[in-house]
## 1
Amino acid sequence: MNKIYLLLAEGFEELEAFAPVDLLRRAGAAVETVSITPERVVTGARGIPAVADITLGELDYEAMDMLILPGGYPGYENLGKSAAVRELLLRAYADEKVIAAICGAPSVLGELGLLKGHAATCYPGMEETLGCKALTDKVVESGRFITSRGAGTAVDFALALVARAVSAEQAEELRKGIVYS
């Protein structure tokens, strides 16, 4: 994989953002956090400020292979309200890039009609927003989509991203290395 981007919107869920970034970086993947506004400091749902690596305007789309959307409230809503994010998702979908989302963020994909014909999972109670077959697995991979349920499944989600971006062997090595059972 060339480049992986994780989008940060005000109110993002910290575990859902940092578990994937941490494990992908441990695996040697080129992953950057991206503020969806011109400001690099983005505050999470629990009040933890994060300094994004870049802003949306600095994203190198041609190098991008994977796009990750963390959930969190109101983070996932802020992602969905952003015209620039919606445009990026539609373009990534058309270009068959890998798109991953966790918690409430799969609803953004569902509302754009991107999950039609796929299976996905999301935060409990939001299944009707997906527009596809909703499952209750911790992580669901369907074609180029990877979805997960919430903060409690963030490590499972991150390991699935490592398996897709790097290798299943690297994901297993990391699982053992962080003592995750």
## 2
Amino acid sequence: MTDYSFLEPNTMIRLYAQGAFPMADEDGSIEWYYPEIRTIIPLDNFNYPRSLRKFIEKSDFEFRFDVDPINVIRNCADRENTWISEELIDAYKRLYKLGFLHSVEVYKENELVGGLYGITHRGAFFGESMFSKVSQASKSALVKLIEHLNEKGFVLLDIQFITDHLKMFGAVEIALEEYQKLLILSYTKNVFF
């Protein structure tokens, strides 16, 4: 039997607070990763693409927070290759009950069409995954997340890996030392999502 004690809420939050994040491998085993190069979206200097701003203003999207995060996670996991195992989903459920897991959900005609989720610890949001069933839904969710984090006084948005999709929002790779400084600053914030 596999030992998943590192998926208990207190252990998970401690590891996230140190900058680590979990991923399940193809064989189902779960590892915690702590890369030397970190990817963030600077909350005080993010890019809001003008075309996306216009799209959101005219769209019929409705945005909700923390209404159905497990459904968001399941949609994120619904792909051919996923790092989100059932054991991780169970662990996320426990974190949600304790107020550490959060989601931004995008609805169209009352149907969930996109969203993202992540873990919070003090002034840090550790983004985990996003999905989109219709054009621009996940990008719109990310804009709403960034706006929300800024309103609440968060200092760190960790997005794990850089992609072209995230570069358009100002995502940058930084050295571990700089990342650790942001983590320490986030500890001084007692903000709530």
## 3
Amino acid sequence: MAKHTNPGFDPAEIEQLKLECQEAGKPFVYFEDELNDEPDNVEEFVHIQFVGEYNKQEVIYDAVLYTLRLHHCSLVFEAAEKKVKNSYPSYIPQEERDASYVPNEEFEEEIDMFIAELIDEMEENEEVKVAEHLEIDPDFDYGIGLDVCLNVEEISEEVVEKFVAEFLSGSFKLDPTLYSFKSEDED
């Protein structure tokens, strides 16, 4: 078997992360990226790293934890965008636009209103239901990737500590219940 080239399996990297965790006084460290630094807002998403075992080998876990509400919201938005594409073939979703895109304000406004209506309708009819999930990506580019969706109001430090402790001890359990949410802001 070929030696791992994934730096998340490198003993020196693992020792470095253990030191960082020790200095922080926690079993994990926050991975600094732009989505984590919103101190005034409720954290619906955090990116962390911690040391654990995978296939009897010490490894760095690179994990994103986010709320079920955030997951639901993005799935509803994606579904609404798909419906918009069917009704307005010339519509180009935000993430597909490039530098050559020239917005048409009137068209954009019409689309925004249509998306808002579709979202309201989908939420009202509870068309999208979500459950907690944990996806493990052993082919991640740095250690082992974890995608963790939890049914909590916010991803607080207590939530993260509880998840890491339960994950490392093998006692972490997912809630299989399906949930649907409604948007909080009525504007």
